[in-house]
Amino acid sequence: MLENIHRRVQEAKELGLKVCVGMEDASRADTNFLAQIAEAAQQAGACRIRFADTVGIMEPFGVFETIKQLRAVTDLDIEMHAHDDLGLATANTLAAALAGATHLNTTVNGLGERAGNAALEEIVVGLKQLYNINTGVDLHNFSSLSCYVAKASGDAIGSRKSLIGSAVFSHEAGIHVDGLLKDINNYQGVDPALVGRKHSLVLGKHSGTKGVIHAYQQLGIALSQAQAKNILIQVRDFVCHTKRSPQTEDLTRFITFC
Questions:
Q1: 181 pLDDT above the threshold of 90
Q2: Contact 233, 205 (CB under 8 A)
Q3: Nearest residue to 94 (alpha-carbon basis) of 54, 135, 35
Q4: What domains can you pick out in the chain, each with its CATH number?
Q5: What integer pLDDT is reported at residue 189 of this predicted model?
Q6: Any idea of the CA torsion for 49, 50, 51, 53, to the nearest 10 degrees?
Q7: Residue 166's pLDDT is what?
Q8: For position 258, what pLDDT does the model report?
Q9: pTM over 0.90
Q10: Helix, strand, coil proportions of the chain in percent (round to 5)?
Q11: How far from chain centre, in Å, is Cα 96?
Q12: How far apart are CA 135 and CA 195, in angstroms?
């Protein structure tokens, strides 16, 4: 393998190409041998090595130590390729970046083999929000791209998918809604505007009177506290029976009975 690396990299360079040596299934390889591969790639004139957790078995602490070891033995750029079989692709990719990886493989909406790869949107927001690392990727129009990719791929977006799911910036619980209405930062860990989204307040079985009053304010209707309490009873009963939030026509009907 080491001889092959030297020969093939040289051939590619003679053709005027820049070369990245990909290390398939690196997460199950001997780390000392990975160091030898990195050394051989650098001596042959490659510009990058690619560490692949092909079967998605790694965890962030192990990734950090492994990439840190590679970083210590090579000056090459290091690319991280993570799979989400254990739901850790984003965490593993962030760990790789902190350990010295210079390039990160991502896909829109986390598409990819089996459970998918690290999601572009999660990595960009995670690096900026957690570590103040700016990737230069502007996600303000990302919602359109996300929907386009979902439609083109035929792969639906789960309602609870981080950052892009339809429900991830919606708030129902009474204490959450009350807090948001007083100061949005009370229950905002991520600004939805980063990915072209915004908060929405929905009515459900966990709602409180403040949420009811706010919902009717959006319809141009001012409620008294007594009316809100009466309607809240109807809202909770409605949601328990229909398993959905009430729409405008439902809210209009509720107020006639309070």
A1: no
A2: no
A3: 135
A4: 2-134+146-153 (3.20.20.70), 170-255 (no CATH)
A5: 87
A6: -170
A7: 87
A8: 64
A9: no
A10: 50, 10, 40
A11: 16
A12: 14
